[in-house]
Structures are given as structure tokens and as C-alpha cells.
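Researcher: Next sequence.
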Amino acid sequence: MTGQLHNKRLTIRALSISAVVLDGFPPLVKQLPVLLLFTVAVVISLIVPTANITSVPALIAAAVLLAVATGLAGILPRVDPTGRVIVMIPAIDFLVIGVLRFATGESTSIFASLAILPAVWIAASPGRRHIAYAFVGVLGGLLVPFFLGSTLEDNPNEIARGLFSACAFTLAAAVVNDLGRLARRNISDLQAKEHATLMELQRASVVQQALLPTGGMDAVGYDSAGMCLPSKTISGDFFDWYKASNGIAITLGDVMGKGVGAGIIAATVRAVVRSARNHDDLATALDRASDALASDLADASTFATMFHARLDDRTGAVRYIDAGHGLTIHVSAQGSWSRLASDNLPIGLSSGEAWTIGHLQLEPGDTLVSCSDGILDLYDGTVESLRHIADIVDSSVDAADVIFRIRAVITGSDLTDDDITVVALRRLAL
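Model: Next structure:
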């Protein structure tokens, strides 16, 4: 029973939305079915022996009126953007159908049902008054033959037939009008909900951006900069730097997926990694993050790649763990570069093995750059694309310039739909 009720609601909603869609069509599109069925009616009258044409002049007059209505359907939207006089078109259509009936046998004509088209056209418009307009239009169109010479003696049941048909068509018009009203209300509710959701996402985006470091890492002799550009409102990437035990911590993470879910997990991973700032052992941060994904976020079935490093700002020594990331490069002051390979699984896919810790030395003028995989889509999609980043680094004056130049490449490209995050650390030349 519940399923049947749900299906009925879906059907009503679909019909109601169809009514609004009909109202949203341009007048010329809504006029085309009338033109098509009028043409079919003429063809039937010419080739079917029992559907005779009883008045050729009336048929010609109906065709002329229909041409006028169709022409107005194409012109009026341009000269009357408010649409106040568009109702003239279905009004003419009612007249056309009445004249067509007179030309094809009056009470014996088989084309009276064509009046449903302009009736639905009018009824789809907002406002209960359009139901009355439809009733008047249908009734007026069915009574047109009396104004063209028909008499009650010839058609004694015509008025009763007209009233009955008008009532029947008006009921259909009332249904269409009510469905349209329900659809407009549903659409209004959906738009309000969509707006509220968008505002929530925008606020979440502001909060997420606020979590990213904005100033330098407060280390004498070093320059840092970063950016995080989400493909949607919320990013699944993050970067971070902060004072930690015996140096400066630098992190870049890339959560599988995009959007709100990935953003929530990224914020969680960031917080967990930060919680290990007072531990000198790099593995502590990765263990905690991996445990959070494997246990607390097990139902999310996700993982994250990460580059996490600790800089000794006194010596330039860098210790790092690359958890399945592999998109970090070390560019020397002379322009040569190397990629820091990953020997570890992503966090959340822990195999129980100890994390492999790498080491490098930042000499004066050297730059360390880590980025998310969205950067690869700007080029050929492979890790070989990192050579372009190395070239950008080599031609940049400082870390901020590195980010500025990469951002310029992103702005000039439409080849990526992934989050793009980059963090750059340069040891200043002596």
C-alpha cells in the first residue's frame, strides 16, 4: 500500500511538472500541435468519404485564421515580453476550431475534440481564472457554427452538446491548472531548499578555506606558499604547515573522491595529523590518521594519499613520509629536480608495516613542492607532467611566485575537473 501511494505521488508530481513545462514553452511551440492537427483534419476531410467538406469558404477562412494565430505566436513574444496578450492566440484557435466544425459538417464533424488543445494551453497558466477562460473558449468555439448560419432546427442538440463538451473540457483544464499549481509550489520548495543547501556549502567552503594556513611558516630563511582550488564547492584536498616538535611540519593530503564527503574526511585527517605535532616521530601522525580512516571512518570506505614532512629549519634537513602520494619534487637552486617516490600505502589502507621515512637536504635556493593529482590533468595526466612544475619553480623568484604561476596555468585551462592543491617551500638563497 505504501509503495502504491508513493508511486501515485510520483505520478502526480510528474504530471504537475509537465503542466509547468507546458506553460514554459514558447507560444510558437504550443501552437504547433494545433497547426499539425488542423492539417490532419483537412487531409482527413479530403480523403475520407464520410468526412465531407460542407463549406469550402469556411475551411479557407479557418486556415487563414490559423495562419494569423501562428504568426502571432512567433511575433508576440518579441513585442510583448510580459505575455499579457498571448492569450489572444488560443482564443483565435477556439474560433478556428469552431469554423473548422462548420466547414466539416457542423454537428457531424469529428473535430470538436481539437478544442482541448487551446483549453490546456490556457489552463496551464497560473491562476484559477484561466479555468473560466478555458470554459468560455471551448463553449464559444463550439457555438461558432450558429453565428455562421446554423439553426437549432438543423442541429437541435447542438447547444446541449456544446455545454456538455465545454464542461468536460473544463474539468480537464481544471486538472491541468491544479497540477500546474502543485508543480509551481513543488518547484518553489525545491528552489528554496537548493538555495539553503548552496548557502550551507558556501559557508562550509569559507570555513574550509579558513583552516588553510595563510601566513608564512615563521621560519627564518624559508619562504612558503600554498593554494587549494576545489573542483566543487568543497575540496577533498588540504595543505598545512605549523610549528612542531624540533621544526616545522608540512602536510599535503588528497582524499579519494570530491565534494562534501571528501571535504569532511579531509578536515578529520588534518586534525588528526595536527594532534601529533608534539611527537618527533613522523610515523605517529600517519598512524593516527590511518587508524581514524580504518576504524572511525570505516563505513566511508575511503583512503587518502599524503605527503607529511618535518623541516629542521636550522639545518635544512627534511624528514618525510610519502603515503601513496608520489607527487612531490625537490628542485635544486641550479634547476635540476627529482621526484620523491612513495614506498608506502595510502593512509586507511595500512598493511601493518612500518612507515618508510625519507630524507633530503634543502640547500639555499632549493624548493620543495608537493601537489595533488589534479595538477597532472593540466598536462598529459602522467607523473611526467611534474617536469612542467619543475620548470615553473626554476623560473620563479619565490614560493608565492610558484603558486601564482601555477594558478595562472589553471586559470587558462579547462582540462581539469579535479581538486588542485599545491604547497611550496623554498629555502632562501644566502
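Model: The beta strands are 222-229, 237-244, 247-255, 304-312, 317-323, 328-331, 337-340, 358-361, 367-371, 420-427. The mean pLDDT is 83.
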